[in-house]
Amino acid sequence: MHPLQTHKSEDAVHLSAEPAIASPRPPSSRQVGLLLAGVAVGGAALAWVGINDRAKGMQEVESWTERQAVPTVRVVQAVRGPMDEDLTLPGSLSAFYTGTLYARASGYVTAWHRDIGARVRKDEVLVEISAPDLDQQLAEARATLVQLQAAVDQAQANADLSAATNKRTARLVTQGWSSEERGDTDRFTAASRMAALSVAKANIVAQQANVGRLEELARFKEVRAPFDGVVTARNVDIGDLLTAGGTSGRPLYRISDLHRVRAYVNVPQAFLAVMKPGLKASLRVPGQGAPFDAEVTSTANAVAEDTRKGLVELQADNSEGKLWPGAFVEVRFHLPSDPGTLRVPATTLVFDRNGTQVAQLGDDHRVALKPVTLGRNLGNEVEVRAGVTIAERLIDNPQEFLASGDVVRVAGEEATPRTASAN
Predict the structure, then answer these.
(1) What is the DSSP string of 160-207?
(2) Residues 54/375, Cβ–Cβ less than 8 Å
(3) For residue 51, how many C-alpha atoms fall within 13 Å in the half-sphere facing its CB?
(4) Strand partners, 126
(5) What is the CA radius of gyration of the chain?
(6) Domain 72-80+340-410 adopts which CATH fold?
(7) For every one of its 423 residues, what pLDDT tens digit does the chain have, with 9 covering 90 and above?
(8) Are strands 222-224 and 241-242 parallel, antiparallel or unpaired?
(9) Are the beta carbons of 359 and 371 closer than 8 angstroms?
(10) Fewest CB atoms less than 10 Å from the CB: which of 18, 170, 230, 308?
(11) 282 beta partners
(12) In 3-state terms, what secondary structure has residue 149?
């Protein structure tokens, strides 16, 4: 047999041994219905999810919009004032008395006796001045006074002689032994010499005054301390040429009475009403440990227009000499305070044509603008005399457009109020 035929017959045997493949059957109507129903349910589910997400998103947008339409504010409350209140202000120290000494006699300095820091007694000699010109003027004035005194004596003698002559002539005229012309001449001569005597006496009085003036100036050749105190400045040395009456330059000496010191403070207008004499205060000087007791003695009774402050004077004991004039000092006033007076931050105030108001927030988150009566302005805080209670909530930094009845949201609170339109 041919080999090719053998292979063909084997292939035929193998083919006849395999089972026959069945042809596909078309799906039944029940299967098709189930498939369509599943597709419809899936589409409905997807549509429901989409609609729900869309509604939720719209609700969130509406809620966000509503929140944005309601202003967010911060609230504060009024607080009571302290039982005791301190007011600290900068000030400066001054000596109780200060004497500034200038030259009253022209000349050269021959000696000075006290340096800065020295304690001096009243009328103690500090500077000696050599004034030869003044000495010469005084000697000349005294000599002139002697001349004028002699002139007075001469005028007195002439007046006495004329008076006696006039008396004799008047008697002779009466008896007819002398003419009336002679009598008139002697009478007028006596009157003239009496007038000359008065002029001579007036001249001597004037010259005595001139001598006294020069003697007083001569006393100024010694510059003396005007009171007990401490030398706080010395600007003179031996050989210096001094000019009498000069006050434009540096003084020769400055003497300060430091047994007490004065402190001057510029106090804001809001506190001037309590600055009464006797008000207690304490002074603290940089570099000094413990404060010093002081009290108000007087005020200027005037307010500076540029600063709206008034000058207040205090005095403090300085028997130990620890306080120096010219030093910077912190003055702490111990002010009486009314604990019933409430204080609010200055940022809660609203100023408009209706006056001064605050924005009070009710429990329903509605704003109510209320007028208030203010007391002192304390800087960051102000005193409120009337119009606010300690339990009320006040809006801090209220917006200008807020009006009574507006609804607001408080920062930090979870509950969000609904607007008036939503209600």
Answers:
(1) HHHHHHHHHHHHHHHHTSS-HHHHHHHHHHHHHHHHHHHHHHHHHHHH
(2) no
(3) 6
(4) none
(5) 56
(6) 2.40.420
(7) 444 444 444 444 444 444 444 455 666 676 666 677 777 777 667 767 667 666 666 666 555 555 556 788 888 888 887 767 788 999 999 999 999 999 988 899 999 999 999 999 999 999 999 999 999 999 999 999 999 999 999 888 888 888 888 787 777 777 777 777 777 787 788 888 888 889 989 999 999 999 999 999 899 999 999 999 999 999 999 999 988 876 667 899 999 999 999 999 999 988 898 899 999 999 999 988 899 999 999 999 999 999 999 999 999 999 998 999 999 999 999 887 776 788 889 888 888 888 888 888 888 888 888 898 887 777 788 888 888 888 888 888 888 888 888 888 888 776 555 544 434
(8) unpaired
(9) no
(10) 18
(11) 293, 332
(12) helix
Per CATH, 72-80+340-410 and 104-131+221-251 having the same topology is answered: no
State the amino acid at position 304 in one-letter form.
A
Residue 103 CB partners (closer than 8 Å, separation 6+): 129, 220, 223, 242, 243, 244, 245, 246, 252
Which are the contacts of 205, defined by CB distance < 8 A and separation ≥ 6?
none
By CB atoms closer than 10 A (0-12, 13-18, 19+), residue 13 is exposed
d(CA 73, CA 224): 73
63 vs 57: CA distance, rounded Å: 10
Tokens representing 176? Answer: 């007819």
Q: Tell me how far apart the alpha carbons of residues 363 and 417 are, in angstroms, rounded to a whole number.
A: 10
Tracing tokens 């004034």 back to the chain, one arrives at: 131
**Domain 104-131+221-251 classification at class level:** mainly beta
Please state, as a whole number, how many other Cβ atoms lie within 10 Å of the Cβ of residue 384.
22
What is the per-residue DSSP string for 230-249? EEEEE---TT-EE-TT--SS
Nearest 5°: CA angle at 85, between 83 and 90? 175
Rounded-to-integer distance, Cα 224 and Cα 14, Å: 156
Give the domain ranges of the chain: 72-80+340-410, 104-131+221-251, 132-218
Cα 88 to chain centroid distance, Å, stands at 11
Residue labelled with tokens 């009290």:
295
User: Rounded to an integer, what distance in angstroms lies between the CA atom of residue 66 and that of residue 53?
Assistant: 20
Residues forming beta bridges with residue 311, ordered by sequence position: 266
Cβ pair 281, 297 in contact under 8 A: no
